[in-house]
Amino acid sequence: MENGMHKRPIIPGIASAVIWGLGQLLNKQPVKALFFFFMQALLVLIEVLTGQYTDLSEGYTFRENGGFFIKGLWGMVTLGEVPRRMSILGLTDGDHSIVLLINGIIGLIFLLIFVSVYIWNIKDAFRTRKLINKTGIVPKTKDYIDELWSSMFEYIVLTPSIIMLVLICLMPILFGMVIAFTNYNGAHLPPAKLVDWVGFDNFINLFQLPIWSRTFMGVFGWTLAWAVLSTVTCFFGGLFQAVILNNKRVKGKKVWRTIFILPWAIPGMISLLVFKTLFNGQFGPVSQFLMDIGLTDQRISWFTDSSSPNLARAMIILINLWLGFPYFMALMSGIMTSLDKEIYEAAKMDGASPGQEFWKLTFPLVLSATAPLLIMSFAANFNNFGVIYFLTQGGPTNPHYQFAGYTDILITWIYKLTIDNKMYNMASVMSIIIFLVIGSISAWNFSRTNAFKDEEGA
């Protein structure tokens, strides 16, 4: 009867669910049993050695006695219970909500890894017993390892990189996202004060409170306009220069290409510094020159005039055009020189004019080849912190906005919310919105490009 029960796959599965590796031991696979039991022992040891389990005279509490996993989950759920207070001897011991949250996220990640091993342990015991019942042969551990190595080689080799990626990239991203569901701001700064979970209140406030909704809609609208205009101007500016340089009547093409590529070759920060000095509203030479020739009777505040915010926006777009068009010019020049000349010869034989050749042949072919890079440029400009903040710092001042100016885009507004105003929760909400917008637009556009379609067809 006992042997008959052991032949039922559910028995080793239940055994491994109670004690990791016990099902493998029942299946007469001691090496695998030892591995899974070691993983369970490691889980227990980490919890016991990092907790206070030797002194339970006053009872067990998650805060005082919990180890890495239990206290981590407790801290992530509660964000602390005892804030630090100022006493005669200094700050008292207490909970730091942000430290507890970070520890909880790390603990949860590692706990999920152990849970995955636990599920693997149960499934392996169940499947192995089914295989034994079918073949009557106990699989050798060496054969199992060889099969695992051949079928999951790429994942095994990448395991160290995946772990580092999770800890260095995924963990900060998760932390930044969950902050959006707390009240972590200047009024709730640990360790003197605790942070609380507030659910979707921050998202609701962003769209319902007038001061926040007005600022968000204004900044978001300008961010979209800036991303589109800066991308389109650089694209067509580069296309215009590439068409001119590829014309047969242009002499000294190498010299002109060298001159036009200089704005891209020079570090962008240096160019921005030069432009900021040239268009300085107080002592910039451009304003002085306009006054000297009689076009204006006073200096122009190119970046700081609140009565003419579109002037600052136009200047930013023009300066960004200077910085960005050489990249597209060089890219499109290479594409145009590689286009099949026979296509143009056939078009001329059909009576196509130079304009028709450009709009019906050159432009579609160039656009098809540069579409993925165009999307990447849009995403980069959507988060182009350097150009905006270095030139205007988000100004001119807008009295109707909350911690933002006329030229602020979402990323510079996030910077001000965090560094200047300690509104970490609202900044996290903005970060999530940026991710959703950029991720959605990029995914949608990439799916429509020929490169993506060709990969799907392959």
Automatic annotation (TrEMBL):
Residue intervals of the ABC transmembrane type-1 domain:
220-445
Please give the start and end residues of each transmembrane region: 33-53, 98-120, 155-181, 219-243, 255-275, 311-337, 358-380, 424-444
Please list which residues make up the signal peptide: none
The record's section on Pfam families has: BPD_transp_1
Gene3D superfamilies given in the database record: MetI-like
The record's family statement is: Belongs to the binding-protein-dependent transport system permease family. MalFG subfamily.
Name this protein carries in UniProt: Maltose/maltodextrin transport system permease protein
